[in-house]
Amino acid sequence: MTRIESVAHMTDSDLLVVRKFGNLFEAEVAKSALEAAGIESLLRADDLGGVQPGLWAGRGVDLLVSAEDADRAQEILTTNARSLDE
After folding, report:
1. In angstroms, how far is the first alpha carbon of the chain from the final one?
2. Could you tell me the pTM of the whole model?
């Protein structure tokens, strides 16, 4: 099973929002940190299917992971945020 297939089979009830970001760049950086740790994730932002790319602004960008990876993802994101502050 490829990475896309393994995430694609999940339902909304299998996914949890672990963070909400104010912009797409920060969300993509966090997603990369999770991928480096072996955690699959998805970004969710309402942009009308790409027709209005800035529509998500003000609503934020959600970072979702599987329920079973949520605790570990939170730990990784918190650790990475702390190391940036130092």
Report:
1. 39
2. 0.71
